[in-house]
Amino acid sequence: MKRIHHIILIATTLIFSACQADEDVTGGDLGYLRLSVHEDLGTTTRAVPAGYEPEQIAVQIIDKTGKVEEETEDAELWKGKSIELPVGTYMVKASSHGFDGNAVGFGIPYYAGSKEIKISKGSELNETVTCTLANVKVTAIFVQDLLDKVQSVALRVYDASGTYSLNFAQGSEAAYFPVVDALYADITVVNQAGKSNTLKEQKLGNKEGKVNARDHYILTIQPESTGNNNISVEVDPTTHAYSYTFNVSTVPSENATLTAAAWDRLAYLKATDVVAGSGVSVDNLKFCYRTVASGEEGAWTEIAATKEDETTYTALVTGLTASTEYQYQLMNEENVLIGNEQTFTAGGVDPKTALPNGNFEDWSTHSTETVLGKKNVVFPYSEEDYNSGDVFWDTSNTGANSAGQLNPTNSSTDFVISGVTAARLESKLVNAFVIKAFAAASLYTGSFGDASMNMTARINFGRSFTSRPVALHGYYRYTPATVTQIGDNLPADASVSENEPDQCAIYVALAKKTYTIDNGDTSSFIDFEGDDNIIAYGTIEGDYVIEESAEHGYTEFTIPLQYKESQFGETPQYIIVVCSASKYGDYMTGGVGSTLYVDDFSLVYEGTPTIWKNK
Q: Residue 32 forms beta bridges with which residues?
């Protein structure tokens, strides 16, 4: 029998879906198909990109085994023809030729359709395959009243993963997205002053929050009117059209929070919650600052912002003038404002107070009451300071001397950097009568409180101090003994072990208050990291002692003071400097005979401070 091809093409738009025939194909018997391909005009668009013709429809007729019995790249070629097919059940699949819809772009609608048919022996079958839009359509409308009021307005539509994303502007044609779980919109307005405002993560979708094929989202962006609603939605379920109206403000409310903490000569600037808006980049951000007195015409000074994490940026501004008010802001490389303009005032001139008796030249001995009566106790200050009560340093000699003239901390002429004397700290064992305890040699800014018969003691740490040094500089020489004394309350994470070398400790802190430490009560110990009364802290301890020695067997050190971010702008009220021949002496742990020499301590004021981030 002669094969006759005949197809009636009513329209040219088809959609693809898969199915399976349910009847065997009989090879010797034939029937005829007269096929109409029908377009759903409710989803038609004429905007197409170059090289892609969405209304050129490819058709396949597939039997149960998956074999393509007949196919064409253009349904127009079958127009007016009838197709001869073996008897059986088939799936007719049709879709836009050359594209599967799995991409995002302007003017690229994707159509597809499918239908199961049955061919009977000797008969002609007339069938119509209706094709609809198989991807998601998005149209943006920028109201002219808004465009007249601003420098620019931009819309970004994207899916949750960021795989599919498009930026819309005035004049953009309709865009098409694959079917995803949901779509989101960001709208950014830059007003005439160059300041931006962004509505972020406005979700598009049906009442279940999802998007489907054939959905058409019409997004209208207009100026904000009275009321607080940023978005309204109208849905026409007959056509799957969703009309969104976004009311955006031309008054900037940038998506960053700016803070500043200032000294006399510098300021620490921080921006948090920094998120890129639609069409607004956060690459290469910079802080800009100038004096308020310079007025609107004053030139801005720029400093690059350091990215701390995905939404946080910082900068340390130096070279400021004391007692001066500044304004500052955060901008991107295109000079678009990211953070609202703010102000800060540099403080008055900070004093640069020297560390009293930091060269450890002043010493005196006084008869002092101890637990077991009066004893001669060595102190790290002069007779004159003792008589005036103007003392700065102290030791735990008063407690250690309860059972004898031990004076674990004393002056020494054996090893000296400059001058006549240095401080010598030697941990000792108190062993007299009923008293037997480990006495770690110590030297600190503050005063000794009192001691008990079981050799626990209370020490007052901190001396009045309102300067802001950036480091503690000095020299030390350390000879550790083997650890033989282990206290009952030693913390589990202590880096010390019996029969291993002892460790020394030197640390400095700036604080808002003084501290009374009871070495019989570990809850009284200072939490340098977690206590907000500690403004800055720095330490040198442990393995540092094995570094290359300087003159006279000393090691030179510089301990940077780490200023907490949260406390950077606070003014110190007290300084705490502590030296110990046994780091864990507060826990009655260390090596008898561990000896630490220290000399020529001084505070460093030149340079920039270290920031203790997130503290």
A: 84, 124
Residue 549 DSSP code: P
Strand runs (DSSP E) across 169-211, as ranges?
175-177, 183-191, 196-204
Q: Residue 308 pLDDT > 90, yes or no? A: yes
Instruction: State the DSSP code for 609.
Output: P
The secondary structure of 109-145 as a DSSP string is: --EEEEEEEEE-TT-EEEEEEEEEE-SEEEEEEE-HH
- Contact of 46 with 77, CB cutoff 8 Å: no
Q: Which amino acid makes up residue 238?
A: T
The answer to whether the beta carbons of residues 508 and 445 sit under 8 Å apart is no
Distance CA 593, CA 586 (A): 16
AA identity, residue 440: A
pLDDT digits (tens, 9 = 90+) for 344-367: 999 999 999 999 999 999 999 988
Contact predicate 512/535, CB 8 Å: yes
Q: pLDDT: is 230 or 423 the higher one?
A: 423
> Which is nearest to 472 in space by CA: 445, 441, 447, 496?
445
Q: What pTM was computed for the model?
A: 0.61
8 A C-beta contact, residue 412 and residue 553: no
14 DSSP 8-state letter: -
- The full length of the chain comes to 615
Nearest 10 degrees: CA dihedral of 99, 101, 103, 106?
A: 90
In our burial notation (b when 16+ CB lie closer than 10 A, e otherwise), range 514-546 reads bbebbbeeeeeebebeebebbbbbbbbeeebbe
Quote the CA–CA distance of 340 and 197 in Å, as a whole number.
10
Compute the distance between CA of residue 295 and CA of residue 437 in angstroms, rounded to an integer: 68
- Cβ of 487: how many Cβ atoms within 10 Å? 17
516-539: pLDDT as tens digits: 999 888 889 999 999 999 999 999
